[in-house]
Design goal:
CATH architecture of the largest domain: Orthogonal Bundle
Structural class: mainly alpha
Largest sheet: none
Strand content: under 5%
Number of domains: 2
CATH class of the largest domain: Mainly Alpha
Helix content: over 70%
Oligomer: single chain
Distance between the termini: 55 Å
Order of helices and strands: HHHHHHHHHHHHHH
Shape: flat
């Protein structure tokens, strides 16, 4: 696959795609949950709107930087070869300017209309994802997604800090849940796209250690995730409804992980990946429902 000429006119859809809107929306869902759990009643409307807007803009900036850094390997992978930069519809200079504008706007909103702590934490998450993970770890170690997953796990803490201006233990539990969720979520996708990662030279675990070892890792991290997911109940942050939801969802994740290891079919890796997205979304919605109704 060769890169197309950059003479092709960029559309707003190209810039929107570089923001990875579906990923950012999932991040904002977890940020919202962090906000809601930080207070017994409703989150102040200005913090609710401006806090999530700032977080979304900075997260989008990180996604754009990811497109910029990975443009040469994106063209080699079926999943990413149609990205705007890989196809030359947007040039690197436009992309860099767009990333800066998004990042500065998001940081300004958080710094001046929310609070400095949320701004600095969001900046740390941006640096971790855009530069430490994408720029270094992704190409340096098969444990890239484990080490780099911390930046992607930050949104609940960002939302919590936006409301309270503090870092508290319950917020860190929410971060820990996403941190434990990230490896089995992403490794399932990596198994499905193993040949593409091998072609691109990215040392993902299925490429460097094989599918069997990766599937064992997925089982182990899924069991860790199930254990971590019940901590909100034992910390007193959530009640019985959440505990039952966490256990039911966790059993489902373990079943998919076991099927991936022992009875895989052609679609099992992607089905596990898709279930992991549903798992996280429903788990965090259960946190909010339990918080307000019980």
């Amino acid at each position: 696959m060769t890169q197309l000429s950059s003479n092709a006119a960029a559309s707003w859809r190209d810039f929107y795609e570089m923001c990875k809107p579906r990923v950012v929306m999932l991040m904002i869902l977890t940020s919202l949950v962090g906000m809601f759990l930080a207070v017994p009643a409703m989150v102040p409307l200005d913090v609710l709107i401006l806090g999530n807007l700032g977080i979304a803009l900075v997260a989008s900036s990180g996604a754009v930087v990811n497109h910029l850094i990975d443009r040469k390997i994106d063209v080699l992978m079926k999943r990413t070869h149609n990205r705007p930069l890989a196809q030359g519809r947007v040039d690197p200079r436009q992309t860099a300017i767009f990333a800066v504008v998004l990042g500065v706007a998001g940081m300004a909103i958080l710094m001046f209309w929310v609070n400095p702590l949320s701004a600095w934490l969001t900046l740390g998450s941006f640096v971790g994802y855009a530069f430490i993970y994408t720029g270094y770890l992704k190409h340096a170690t098969p444990q890239n997604i484990v080490i780099g997953g911390l930046s992607g796990a930050m949104p609940p803490l960002l939302g919590w800090a936006a409301v309270t201006g503090t870092i508290e233990a319950d917020a860190l539990i929410l971060v820990l849940i996403i941190f434990a969720w990230t490896p089995p979520h992403f490794w399932a996708l990596a198994i499905h796209r193993k040949d593409e990662y091998a072609k691109s030279g990215v040392p993902m675990l299925p490429v460097t250690h094989g599918e069997y070892v990766t599937k064992i890792h997925i089982i182990v991290y899924t069991l860790i995730l199930v254990a971590v997911s019940v901590l909100p109940y034992f910390s007193g942050m959530s009640g019985l409804l959440y505990l039952l939801a966490a256990l039911a969802l966790g059993v489902g994740f373990v079943v998919w992980s076991a099927k991936l290891l022992f009875r895989p079919q052609a679609t099992t890796a992607m089905d596990t990946f898709r279930y992991s997205i549903v798992y996280l979304a429903v788990l965090f919605v259960a946190l909010v429902v339990d918080h307000y109704l019980f």
